[in-house]
Amino acid sequence: NKMGDYRGQQFILFLFFMIGSISCPKECICQYLAVNCTGKLLEEFPTTIPLDTRQLVLAQNKLSYLPSLELHFLSDLIYLDCSSNTLGKDLDFTFVSMIKLIYLDLSFNNLTQVTFGTFSQLSSLVVLKLSDNPSLMEIEKDSFASNTWLRHLDVSRCSLMFIDTSTIRDLPNLRNLGFGENPWSCNCSFMELCSWLKESDPANITCHSPVFMHGLKMLEEEQEELYYKCYIHFSNQDYLFLGLVGFGIFSAGTVLAWLMGVCAVIYEFLTARGEDDKEEEETEN
């Protein structure tokens, strides 16, 4: 009957929960609410992780992806270390059900970008480590808009050239920011970030481009130099552009004046000729 089927389903779910709660991946070490799989050369996410696990360490393996379905069942997880793997695929919505996660380490991987969907569900996140991802070239604006509790963010030693100031400025609890050893493009649009970082640690930013800023750390004097270059000083290209514009205006004015002169001469000629024709007609009459 239906009641029996319903109780049978409940029993199966109960067994599944109990098995998942007491089992441990054979490659890992399990202690109370903690699973450690460090350095086991795992190529796939380990199965049979206890469902009540609070701390999961998967560092120093060969994981190329994180299965969102398996992570979905680890909803009590508060600490996840996936450093030193080969994660490089799109991680958007991978951590959908991990709303209790506080610590996430994705350093030393092959991440390429961070979007709003990557960490949007991690509303309790406090520590996020993304350092040493040499392929990480883009962090989209508002990528951390949902991570308002974030206190520690590390994006050092990646391939970032630019990051929108609002992406980090709007994190009210941010206290520790790692920015160093990225190929930052210290152009005029970078000035806003530099100004915001005055109260942080701008010495961590070393410019890669443009040429006149290459290798310089964004200390106060370098910021003043960039401000001078952007808003006060005219470069050779600026002078060339202004010269071309001036020459164009002068040339256009000269041509216009010549045309007006030609028109005036033609008008005078036609007027004078009309008067002569009129005098001839009066003489004949």
List the topology elements.
Elements: H1 2-22, E1 29-31, E2 34-36, E3 55-57, H2 68-72, E4 79-81, E5 103-105, E6 113-114, H3 116-119, E7 127-129, E8 138-139, E9 152-154, H4 165-169, E10 176-178, E11 184-185, H5 191-196, E12 207-209, H6 220-232, H7 236-284
Summarize the structure.
The chain has 285 residues and is of the alpha/beta class.
Low-confidence stretches: 10-21
- Total strands: the figure is 12
Instruction: Based on Cα principal axes, name the global outline.
Output: elongated
Average pLDDT taken over every residue: 81
Strand content: 5-15%
Main sheet strand line-up: 1-2-3-4-5-7-9-10
Number of helices: 7
Summarize the helix and strand pattern as letters: HEEEHEEEHEEEHEEHEHH
What does this structure look like?
- It is a single-pass membrane protein.
- It comes from Naja naja.
- The protein has 285 residues and is of the alpha/beta class.
- It has helices at residues 2-22, 68-72, 116-119, 165-169, 191-196, 220-232, 236-284, and strands at 29-31, 34-36, 55-57, 79-81, 103-105, 113-114, 127-129, 138-139, 152-154, 176-178, 184-185, 207-209.
- The strands form 3 sheets. The chain has an 8-stranded mixed beta sheet, with no helix packed on it.
- The radius of gyration is 34 Å and the shape is elongated.
- The N and C termini lie far apart (129 Å).
- The model is unreliable at 10-21 (pLDDT under 50).
